[in-house]
Amino acid sequence: xxxxxxxxxxxxxxxxxxxxxxxxxxxxxxxxxxxxxxxxxxxxxxxxxxxxxxxxxxxxxxxxxxxxxxxxxxxxxxxxxxxxxxxxxxxxxxxxxxxxxxxxxxxxxxxxxxxxxxxxxxxxxxxxxxxxxxxxxxxxxxxxxxxxxxxxxxxxxxxxxxxxxxxxxxxxxxxxxxxxxxxxxxxxxxxxxxxxxxxxxxxxxxxxxxxxxxxxxxxxxxxxxxxxxxxxxxxxxxxxxxxxxxxxxxxxxxxxxxxxxxxxxxxxxxxxxxxxxxxxxxxxxxxxxxxxxxxxxxxxxxxxxxx
Length: 307
Known about the structure:
The protein is an alpha/beta fold. It has helices at residues 3-17, 23-32, 37-53, 57-66, 122-133, 156-164, 168-185, 198-209, 246-249, 252-262, 288-305, and strands at 85-90, 96-102, 109-114, 136-141, 191-195, 214-217, 236-242, 266-271.
């Protein structure tokens, strides 16, 4: 199983352990990833046991954050968000990539927004629009472009399964094509990258793959690659974690060590009351206060390192 595929499988199992997915649905989704029944059952049991040992604090946090209902209030950055437009751009090997583009009135820089494991959703498009609203033209590449685009999947589980089957090298190549497109659209401006969950992991993967075009990056609760080494980079990194997200937080020491070894400027923000995916205002783990704090810190970081 590829590292990102393993991460997705563990995320499904964790969602089940925390009461966000019924067992039947979790097994269905794991089966779509190619796990046989015995392996899927074992993974669910392992994650349930881990959740039990931690006192199910994450479940409690998710319930408290959502209040058992859809969160109210305006998500951070939404009040000034710019409407995105659907575009296409030249991808690697002659492929055409789909993307969402949000243009700032007077761009201070550009930001590549990297989506979660459900593909290029309305939420991720809104994040691109939020960046444009505070002065950073933003591009979100659909990493399912070759499969017809996220919109062709009526079931988000199918979109997740499709992403799990794509080689990591293709993700890096497609995202680097997105960076090249940003360079073309905001010439002479510094560029950053922000990814969430699966996309946070891909943000780290960009850095360990050598992406010197990035002046700054803000990966949200993304796993650092096993054995990853950061080279050919001058990126200033603000990494964002949730204090209750034990699975991803376990990779933080490796990320910090790699950043130190590369001599890069870096800081971390660990949201004190938050679990995984706490910034996603359409999800059950949304934590409004921590999301607002994270958004402000990202704005401050880009203001310092992008302009």
